[in-house]
Design goal:
The chain is α/β, with parallel strands linked by helices and about 425 residues long. It is about 40% helix and about 25% strand. Bound molecules: SN-glycerol-3-phosphate (G3P). Keywords: Membrane, Transmembrane, Transmembrane helix.
Length: about 425
């Protein structure tokens, strides 16, 4: 009899615990959904009442020699797109074009027309665009005529690894690359679309010369890894150029390698004087957070420049939960005003630069296909710092005092939305 009673009581305890767990999970999930809906609604009202002016300072394209090549910076979409289109129009042999988002608007059509025209005049044209990033783009825009030297890879919308927990079969193609004739290579934060031409502040670079191979080879790797059976393989010729001063880093879930995170961690760890970071979405993981705080504590001037209000307000809220730790450690936070800043760049000590497609968040650092260039060159780093300081003139500083004064509701919202960070 006592044995039976003991068993009954264990069953009851288990049921009570199970009910409590269900109640807790249900309540937290409901509160999180409520927080997301509230944040989105408030953002919508605010943007309707006071839409961002889209006005921001930007610097004209500037070129500096790096290693045996030349690197040109672009900080305004309209300048970049004209430059890219001119190179596509002048292409003679090959065009490798890869983008995460490709809008079916005026800019988007200009790119599509230019690529088709190049293929018609005999250039070998390879195009990759992401299915998820272009999920809302009309299917007609994503259809291309059949031509012998036009090869189009629509990177799948759905990745089966999400269901089978196979990381190798997950990830979005978040890269933005253009390589023309193996001579000029572009990489950076710009997607393709009207909005980005004039309304968003972003950074792209063009590499002319032997180091364009870094981007060419990166495209070839991606194409050959992900092409469909009907696509031709691009011959992989090995390194045509190899210079430690300018090197590509590619995150590739299919290969389970994420070196972009490594170059960020390494550069932050080495910093002695200053680190300037510009990011559209900034949700640092534990290691990046730790190293940024450690750098600030050893006296490095660590500045993080992010939009005051980005186009993904839930991501902004997930990021806010890290502000206290950063500010307390001495990292300064600069909020970009009146426009979206979408660049993904960092410079260290006026000598090291990275520009690429990788956001400082989990999805980019350990989830998506990404590509960054890291460059060891004082002239380039100083040019990038000049751009950073121009951006800073359009920011307001978020001080620890201001941050400490925020209300209880905001603090609760941050706590609720923090767990969503890894998904954003
Ligand atoms: O994913 P990204 O960094 O290219 O940004 C894309 C924009 O958020 C589109 O909404």
């Amino acid at each position: 009899m006592p044995l039976r009673l003991g068993r009954l009581s264990r069953i009851r305890t288990r049921r009570t615990l199970w009910r409590a767990a269900k109640w807790y999970l249900g309540t937290v999930t409901t509160l999180q959904i409520g927080a997301v809906v509230t944040v989105l609604a408030v953002d919508r009202v605010r943007k309707r009442r006071k839409p961002p002016s889209g006005m921001f300072p930007h610097t004209p394209p500037e070129t500096v020699p790096v290693a045996d090549s030349h690197v040109t910076t672009f900080t305004y979409g309209a300048d970049l797109y004209e430059d890219m289109l001119a190179r596509i129009d002048a292409a003679e042999h090959t065009i490798y074009f890869e983008t995460f988002i490709w809008k079916a608007d005026t800019v988007g059509h200009r790119f599509k027309d230019a690529l088709l025209a190049a293929a018609r005049r005999g250039v070998e044209v390879f195009v990759v665009f992401d299915g998820w990033g272009n999920g809302v783009v009309p299917p007609s825009f994503k259809r291309f005529p059949s031509m012998p030297n036009l090869h189009v890879l629509h990177f799948p919308f759905f990745r089966p690894g999400l269901l089978t927990f196979n990381v190798r079969k997950t990830g979005r193609d978040h890269r933005k690359v253009l390589v023309v004739d193996g001579q000029s290579g572009y990489v950076g934060g710009y997607n393709i679309g009207d909005l980005y031409a004039t309304q968003w502040r972003d950074t792209h670079i063009r590499v002319d010369g032997p180091s364009a191979w870094e981007l060419e080879n990166a495209f070839v790797d991606f194409w050959n890894d992900n092409r469909k059976r009907h696509h031709p393989e691009i011959p992989d010729k090995g390194a045509r150029s190899w210079d430690a001063r300018i090197r590509v880093a590619q995150n590739a879930p299919t290969r389970l390698i994420f070196p972009v995170r490594g170059i960020y961690l390494d550069a932050i760890d080495r910093a002695q004087h200053h680190i300037y970071i510009t990011q559209g979405y900034f949700i640092p993981d534990r290691e990046i957070l730790h190293l940024l705080k450690a750098a600030a504590r050893r006296g490095v001037d660590v500045r993080v420049l992010i939009p005051e209000v980005s186009n993904h307000v839930v991501a902004d809220w997930a990021a806010r939960s890290y502000y206290s730790e950063l500010l307390e450690a001495g990292v300064t936070i600069w909020l970009y005003q009146d426009a979206m800043v979408h660049a993904k760049t960092m410079t260290v000590d006026g000598r090291w630069t990275t520009v690429g497609t990788t956001n400082i968040d989990r999805l980019s650092m350990t989830g998506n296909f990404e590509i960054n260039l890291e460059m060891f060159d004082r002239d380039l780093a100083q040019l990038m710092e000049k751009i950073f300081l121009a951006d800073l003139s359009n920011c307001r500083q978020l001080t620890l005092e201001e941050w400490e004064r925020r209300g209880l509701l905001e603090r609760v919202g941050e706590r609720l939305l923090k767990p969503l960070g890894p998904l954003l």
